[in-house]
TrEMBL record, chain A:
It comes from the Bacteria. The keyword DNA-binding applies. It holds the Pfam family GntR. PANTHER family: GNTR-FAMILY TRANSCRIPTIONAL REGULATOR, HTH-TYPE TRANSCRIPTIONAL REPRESSOR YTRA. One of its GO terms (molecular function) is DNA binding. This is GntR family transcriptional regulator. Residues 9-77 form the HTH gntR-type domain. Keywords: DNA-binding, Transcription, Transcription regulation. InterPro entries: Tscrpt_reg_HTH_GntR, WH-like_DNA-bd_sf, WH_DNA-bd_sf.
UniProtKB/TrEMBL annotation, chain B:
Transmembrane segments: none annotated. CDD domains: ABC_DR_subfamily_A (cd03230). Keywords: ATP-binding, Nucleotide-binding. It comes from the Bacteria. Gene3D superfamilies: P-loop containing nucleotide triphosphate hydrolases. This is ATP-binding cassette domain-containing protein. Residues 4-229 form the ABC transporter domain. The lineage of its organism: Bacteria, Bacillati, Bacillota, Clostridia, Eubacteriales. It comes from Acetobacterium paludosum. Pfam families: ABC_tran.
Length: 122, 284
């Protein structure tokens, strides 16, 4: 997970998305504990209020839940929930950009499809 | 009344107006950045809060108490100053002991632990410390003093990259475990911006910006693309800086961005704080 200032997204969003990524890749498994606000803020050198704001988004969405006095955990069913959410954003975030870059380079649709197949095979 | 209230402070040094009717408020348990170029008035303000200087006009209240000649108010505040005010002949260890006399909540064990982490030999005399270790020595005290308000004046002066990183992490850890108000004066905006909750920018004694860091970051953005694309795009916008490299241009723009109007091929990134700061504090 990387926090980047130059990124146009606010830092709390980057935190939330970074944790989502970790859940999707299995780095943070369902029912498992995730790092505390302190650990997150020290590690990324960000204000604890910012980290809290990022976590609050995930708590609101039911991705993360808090156990009082113990810590924060990944909710059951989070992976599925996040997959569905991310799929909706996939076109917007990746396909549009892919086509934009392809146009710049003069890559045809057929060539893109070939590359996608190759990517899946590798 | 909680927090530190600065009301209409004016301070002159001869013909120089060091602070010009500055009013602001430091709320409890937040991390503030006090930013400005050298000589902007940052240290003057911190010194006035802690009675090392007295204002020509205006007053300061610390949790509702008048700040001037008031021990009750002053013992809530600790200033880590740029200048070293400890007697030259004292060893670091002795200064720690004295700190405990003045600040009853000073955590001696924690201070020793921090010194160890930084590699500071506390048997050394204060005057023999290098610039970097002199800063470290002062940082160690500031992080151990446990007053509700801790003022850091140029805390990372002379510190190498590793030690700066250590300082920022220790500060966050400390703040996270037992929140306090930290005011960090610096001109290295990029380095501290993510740690800060609020940003205050002073220029020639005037308070220019007093904003949450998040709002500040949202107040502008940068775009890059071909010179033609950028020139067209910025026509109706407030541009604070343009960098050209061959046929490519990068512009820093103030204002809200409507991503849907962003032409294809133009790349957008967040506001470059350092550029924003330089532009804002530049002499016209």
């Amino acid at each position: 997970m990387q926090i980047n200032f130059e990124d146009e997204r606010p830092i709390f969003m980057q935190i939330a998305e970074g944790i989502e990524d970790a859940i999707l890749t299995g780095a943070f498994a369902e029912e498992e504990q995730i790092p505390s606000i302190t650990e997150l803020s020290v590690n990324y050198k960000i204000n604890p209020a910012t980290a809290l704001k990022g976590i609050a988004i995930l708590v609101d969405e039911g991705i993360i839940f808090k156990k009082r006095g113990i810590g924060m955990f990944v909710a059951q069913g989070s992976v599925l929930k996040l997959r569905n959410k991310r799929k909706e954003l996939f076109y917007e975030h990746y396909i549009k950009r892919l086509i934009e870059e392809a146009k710049k380079l003069g890559i045809t649709t057929a060539e893109i499809l070939d590359m996608v197949e190759r990517g899946y095979e590798e | 009344m909680n927090g530190i209230e600065v009301n209409n402070i004016t301070k002159r040094f001869g013909d120089t107006l060091a602070l010009n009717q500055v009013s602001l408020k430091f709320e409890p348990n937040k991390i503030y950045g006090l930013l400005g170029r050298n000589g902007a008035g940052k240290s003057t303000l911190l010194n006035i809060i802690t009675n090392r200087l007295f204002p020509d006009e205006g007053d300061i209240k610390i949790e509702g108490l008048a700040s001037v000649e008031n021990d009750e108010a002053q013992k809530k505040v600790y200033l880590m100053s740029e200048k070293n005010l400890y007697p030259d002949s004292m060893s670091c260890r002795e200064v720690f002991k004295w700190s405990l006399m003045f600040y009853p909540n000073f955590d001696l064990e924690y201070a020793k632990e921090l010194a160890k982490q930084f590699g500071l030999d506390i048997n050394k005399k204060v005057k023999t410390l290098s610039t970097g270790f002199s800063s470290i020595f002062k940082i160690v005290i500031a992080l151990s003093v446990n007053t509700p308000y801790v003022l850091f004046d140029e805390p990372v002066l002379g510190l190498d990259a590793n030690h700066r990183e250590m300082f920022y992490k220790l500060l966050i850890k400390k703040y996270s475990h037992s929140p306090f108000t930290a005011i960090i004066s610096t001109h290295l905006i990029e380095e501290v911006a993510m740690i800060l909750e609020n940003v205050m920018i002073i220029k020639n004694g005037d308070l220019l910006i007093n904003e949450s860091c998040e709002t500040l970051l949202k107040s502008g953005y940068s775009v890059s693309g071909t010179a033609k694309q950028i020139d067209d795009f910025i026509l109706d916008k407030e541009v604070i800086s343009i960098d050209a490299l061959g046929g490519l241009k990068t512009a820093t723009i103030i204002g809200a961005v409507d991503k849907s109007t962003l032409p294809l091929g133009i790349e957008m990134t967040g506001l470059d704080l350092q550029k924003f700061f330089i532009k804002l504090t530049n002499e016209e």
